[in-house]
Amino acid sequence: VIAGFYGPCGDHFPTAFRAELTAVIQLLCMAIPPITVWIDNQEVLDGWRKGPAWCCSSARSAADLWRQFWFKVDDIGIEGISLLKTKGHATDVDVELGRGTPFEKKANDNADHFAGRAVDLALAQAPNDMLVQSHKEATLWYKWLTLLCAHWPADKVEKPLANAQASA
Q1: CA pair distance 23, 98, nearest whole angstrom
Q2: Which residues pair with 36 in a beta bridge?
Q3: Which one, of 133, 114, 44, 121, lies nearest residue 84 by Cα?
Q4: How far apart are CA 126 and CA 120, in angstroms?
Q5: Using CA atoms, how far apart are residues 95 and 19, in angstroms rounded to an integer?
Q6: Rounded to whole angstroms, how far apart are CA atoms 48 and 21?
Q7: pTM of structure
Q8: Could you report the per-residue pLDDT of 31-68, keeping only the tens digit for each?
Q9: Rounded to the nearest 10 degrees, how much is the dihedral formed by the CA atoms of 130, 135, 139, 141?
């Protein structure tokens, strides 16, 4: 690993899967083949194996992200990309039992660490309870103003001087 980056998912209602797929898309945006991506998310690997027709179907909840994913794969060239499964949250015992290698464990630990930092960043950017309450109060205030203005009497006073100058 030469470098890493992290950040919030960007979705209004993110899921772990959408965050994982977004991370892979962002990685592919920076990738120079050949590249091997170790992933602990089975859904991403299933989509990779099933291909673009399955992934981009309207039946997929993340079809929007899958389209971005396959666009990047086409741009890079599928022959230069390898996606492999790694054990998520592997322990030293998992390594001893052959369910992962020390390299995979360390890489997954780092990925989990930075995913946690991204969650912290997203939470810090989310509106707090006070801001949410202020927004609700402002919305009620503007609804009341809208009702008030809807019943405001129309101004029917004509201004002859302005009309005379406009027609001259």
Answers
A1: 27
A2: 82
A3: 44
A4: 10
A5: 26
A6: 11
A7: 0.68
A8: 889 998 888 899 999 999 999 999 999 999 899 999 99
A9: 50
Q: How far apart are CA 108 and CA 87, in angstroms?
A: 8
d(CA 10, CA 33): 26
Q: In this structure, how many other beta carbons lie within 10 angstroms of the beta carbon of residue 87?
A: 17
**Residue with structure tokens 């899967």?**
17
The pLDDT, as a whole number, for residue 166 is 55
Other beta carbons less than 10 A from residue 166's beta carbon: 8
CA distances, 116 to each of 13, 38, 86 (Å): 17, 18, 18
List alpha helices for the chain, DSSP H: 16-30, 42-50, 52-55, 63-76, 92-96, 102-125, 129-150, 160-167
Q: Return d(Cα 152, Cα 155) in angstroms, integer.
A: 9
Whole-angstrom Cα distance, residue 168 to residue 166?
6
Q: Which residue has the tokens 């509106």?
A: 127
The residue type at 36: T
For 66-121, write each residue's pLDDT tens digit.
999 999 999 999 999 999 988 888 889 989 999 889 988 888 888 888 888 887 88
